[in-house]
Amino acid sequence: MPGRGALCLGLLLHVLLGCGSSRQPGACPAPCECSEPAKTVKCVSKNLTAVPPDLPPYVRTLFLTGNRLARLPAGAFPARRLPDLSALNLSGNHLRGGSPLEELALRGALRDHGVLLSLATMLQSGALRNLSRLELLDLGNSSLVGLRNVSFQGQGQLQSLNLSDSALGVLRNGTLAQFRGLPALRRVGLGRDAWVCDCTVEDLVAWLKESDQAEGKEALTCAYPDKTLGKALLRINGSDLNCSVPVDLPSQLQTSYVFLGIVLALIGAIFLLVLYLNRKGIKKWMHNIRDACRDHMEGYHYRYEINADPSSEVIAP
Prior knowledge:
Helix content: 25-40%
Protein name: Trophoblast glycoprotein
Number of strands: 11
Mean pLDDT: 74
InterPro entries: Cys-rich_flank_reg_C (IPR000483), Leu-rich_rpt (IPR001611), LRR_dom_sf (IPR032675), LRRNT (IPR000372), Wnt_signaling_inhibitor (IPR052286)
Organism: Otus sunia (Oriental scops-owl)
Keywords: Leucine-rich repeat, Membrane, Repeat, Signal, Transmembrane, Transmembrane helix
Shape: elongated
Distance between the termini: 148 Å
Pfam family, one: LRRNT
């Protein structure tokens, strides 16, 4: 019957539309792309101003790049609902100070140089000023070879900083001074890093000997050069390094320039003194040169006049 067929079709459409309008728990948020097999959710360049509240619980890697996130509210990534979330990419947003984020775990998530720079920018701007724990783990094959451009200003609550398994080869005085200035920092993990034991390691060795912040510092060893391979950093001394270039090169160059200036000034003073003492002889010598030049020029002038006189031309017979 046509009427019953139309009624059944209408009921079917109603059921389908109803199912489509009600999102099932764990479904992918509307502006995002989700892959349950890869445990990945990508909400990239969607002009989001807030973290999607209905992220699927299986997510392990979450990309929120290129949006307009300004704050990370408390409970944005609840561990109870997102138990497997371990990699979070927030680059390309507009995070500003006051975020209540207290723990940031980025184990194996910072292999991309752009993400690392974004994190450095967030630290420098104070966007994570309430951060109490920061983990940068498993950074093999990354570009993190130093922390010279990373500022920990405003991170007074930072308690744990893990830099193990990274490509760090040296930590300089500027970074170590920041560690000393963090009152709550109790643990800095540096295990299994490839430390370069040349003249640049002196700052790190001094810090290790005086500070209790480094975890397992007795086990830290040199990876380069070969003559110090495997040697404990705490046992490194000046004779092991054999520095041929002064560490404080700018000051050394400045001293060299001052010494060169003094030598040149002394040479100039001696030259002027010699000229002054021999002024009469030099004056006579200058007069002799002038007379010789004048006689020479008069000879050229006389020869030119003779050649130019028509009467002096010889007429052939």
